[in-house]
Amino acid sequence: MRMSLSDTWALAFPVRQATNRFAQILPGLSLCLALAGLSYVIAAWPVLNRVVPLSALTVGILVGVVLRLCVALPAQVEPGIRWTLHYLLRAGIVLLGFRVVAQDMLSVGIGGLTLVAVAVGSTIVLAVALGRVLELPDTLSVLVGCGTGICGASAVVAVDGVIRAREQDVACAIAMVTVFGTIAMFVYPAIAPLIGLSEPMYSAWAGSSIHEVAQAVAAGFAFDETAGVHASLYKLSRVALLVPVCAVLALWWRQRAAASGESDRAAPFPLFVVLFVIVVGINSLASMPAPLHTGLLRFDAALLAAAMVAMGLQTRLSSVIGLGWRPLALGLAVAIWISVVALIGAVLIG
């Protein structure tokens, strides 16, 4: 059966459309990937690691912000930057599930899970309440609270998929969790001997309160190897709370939008969070070869690094600076809060 000219055109049109779309995003995507590679090089630099260890994700957003500030980027890269931030970020959050195993999360026990839930929940609630006192937008307060309470920059960008915050809110929240998480990473091992914490107490404290996964693990190993392992288990328990927190925020944000007459702006529950749950289930139930699992984790880290570069490239530093001292006060307050709550809980269960 011979195809007519119209049928041939109908089949060729989607292919041509996809080709044109790829050509549009390629310059910006290539830029983000190249800068992500540079971020890995900088993060692995021994001199920097001795002074202030930073993950490639943190370096990525800094590289993006600096480049945007210093260089006038051509308009051709903008579509690819937006595409990277939207799609690679969500893919990275989904693959983050390969870092979470339900059995490990449960291994901290009922007391540990209660501590984690109280620390995370109270931090987010406090962030919103204090943000309103400081006259900050709820979007920024929620992002700072979730980034501090759950897992740093990854939580900020995941929650942003639910509440659709402004670019400057996202960048500012990431800056807050990076600064105060880094401070905690150095301070915790230094003061732990002074206040007489045992290894179980210290592990629970560090894992339940330090912002980023890498920061919590580094602080744990700075105490000893056992604390490094146990702190990572507490930290992964907090990462697992990303799903219920996003679900609650989605419901709250819909009600909030409806009450303000802006229901058309309410974001639907993000599909990537559902996929994250599925990946956690697969990772918890199925056994995969170690090289494959390691490869997936490295691929995930690369996706998130590229997305962080795109986030930085989308950030106008003047907008962040224009927010003033209030976000800094909010970030400091919630960082102190979760540290104190986690320390009290760690002593009680330790």
TrEMBL record:
Spans traversing the lipid bilayer: 28-48, 55-77, 83-101, 113-134, 140-163, 170-191, 236-254, 266-286, 325-349
UniProt-annotated location(s): Cell membrane
Pfam families on file: Cons_hypoth698
Transmembrane is among the record's keywords: yes
One Gene Ontology term, aspect cellular component: plasma membrane
GO MF annotation: an example: iron-sulfur cluster binding
Keywords noted in UniProt: Cell membrane, Membrane, Transmembrane, Transmembrane helix
Keyword Nucleotidyltransferase annotated: no
Bilayer topology: Multi-pass membrane protein
Major localization class: membrane
Domain of life where this protein originates: Bacteria
InterPro entries hit by this protein: 2Fe-2S_ferredoxin-like_sf, UPF0324_pro
Family: Belongs to the UPF0324 family.
Protein name per the record: Membrane protein
